[in-house]
Amino acid sequence: MDDFKTKYGPWALVAGASEGLGAAFAEALARRGLNLILIARRLSKLEALAAEWQAKYRIETRSYPVDLADIEATRQFLAQLDSVPGLLVYNAAFAPIGYFKDLSESDLQKIATVNVMGPLLLAKALSAKMIERGKGGIVLMSSLSGSQGSAKIATYAATKAFNTILAEGLWHELRGNGIDVIASCAGAIRTPGYEKAKDVREAPGTMDAASVAEKTLNALGKGPVVVPGRMNQFFRFLMGRILPRKLAISIMEKNTKNLS
Ligand SMILES: NC(=O)c1ccc[n+]([C@@H]2O[C@H](COP(=O)([O-])OP(=O)(O)OC[C@H]3O[C@@H](n4cnc5c(N)ncnc54)[C@H](OP(=O)(O)O)[C@@H]3O)[C@@H](O)[C@H]2O)c1
C-alpha cells in the first residue's frame, strides 16, 4: 500500500467517479491513502462520496463538474488544475445500446469524444507532468466487447479496442519514464450503467465493481493489459485465440442482442 502511494500518489484523478466502477476505483485509491481529484457531470454525487471518503480514510479530495463530451470544457478543466496527479484512471464512457443504423450522428460523436478524445486529452496532459516527475500511472478502462466486433454496441466496442491498443503502446513508450500504463479489459460489471442495459439474466462472469477496481490496481505495473476474473480471462482467450473470428463475433452478438 505504501509503495503504491509513493509511486502513484499523493493525488489520483478519477474521470467518471460519481457511481459504479469509477466510484469503486476512487474508494480503492482512498483506501491506499491517495488524495482524490474526482470528475463527472453530477457534482452533488461526487461531493457526497468525497465527504464520506474524507472522513473514513483521512484523505483530501477535490470534486469538479466536467462534461467529458465537451472537449473545450475538458481542456479548461485541465488548464486550471493546480495539483499534479500521479495517477489517472479514465473510467467514464458513453455506451448507448442500439444498432448502428439507429444511432444518431450526435450519439456517434459523443461516443468518440467521451471514449476516445477524453482519454487522449487527459493522458496527454497528465503524462507530460508525470514524465517531469519520472513516475506515475495511467489506467484506461476497456472492455471484452472491444476484443472482437460486438453487434448493437459496435461503435462503443470499437472505442474500447482503441483504449486497449492505446494503453499497450503507451505502456511500452512510457515505461522508460517510470510511468506504468494498463488497460483493464473487463467483462460485465454490476454498475448502474450495466443494470440499466442488461437483459433479465446477468452475463456469465459478471463481477462486482469493487473487485474489478482492486484487480486492476493490483495489476498496474505488471503488464499492459489486465482481464479481471478467471472466467473473463478464459472467455478472452477462447474468443481471441481459439475460435474463428466470424464465430467469435456471432457468439458476442448472442450476449449483446438482448441489451436495451
Ligand atoms: N458495466 C459493465 O458491464 C462494463 C463492462 C466492461 C467495461 N466497462 C467499462 O467500465 C467503465 C465504467 O462503466 P460503468 O458501467 O460503471 O458506467 P456507468 O455506470 O455508466 O458510470 C459511468 C461514470 O462515468 C461518468 N460519465 C459518463 N459520461 C460522462 C461525461 N460525459 N462526462 C463526465 N463523466 C461522465 C458518470 O458520471 P455522471 O453521469 O455524473 O457524469 C459515471 O460516474 C466504462 O469505461 C465502461 O466502458 C463497463
Radius of gyration: 18 Å
What's the number of extended β-strand segments?
Answer: 9
Please report the distance between the alpha carbons of the first and last residues: 40 Å
Q: In CATH, what is the class?
A: Alpha Beta
State the low-pLDDT regions, or none. none
What is the helix/strand order? HEHEHEHEHEHEEHEHEHH
Can you give a write-up of this model?
The protein has one domain (2-256): 3-Layer(aba) Sandwich (Rossmann fold), CATH 3.40.50. It is an alpha/beta fold and 260 residues long. The model has no long low-confidence stretch (mean pLDDT 96). It has 10 helices and 9 strands. The strands form 2 sheets. The protein has a 7-stranded parallel beta sheet with strand order 3-2-1-4-5-6-9, with helices on both faces. Strands 7-8 form a two-stranded parallel sheet. It binds NADP nicotinamide-adenine-dinucleotide phosphate.
Task: Itemize the secondary structure elements and their pairings.
Layout: H1 2-8, E1 11-15, H2 20-31, E2 35-40, H3 43-57, E3 61-65, H4 71-80, E4 87-90, H5 105-133, E5 136-143, H6 154-174, E6 179-186, E7 189-190, H7 192-197, E8 207-208, H8 209-219, E9 225-226, H9 230-242, H10 245-256
Parallel strand pairs: 1-2, 1-4, 2-3, 4-5, 5-6, 6-9, 7-8
Helix pairs in contact: 2-3, 2-8, 4-5, 5-6
The structure holds NADP nicotinamide-adenine-dinucleotide phosphate.
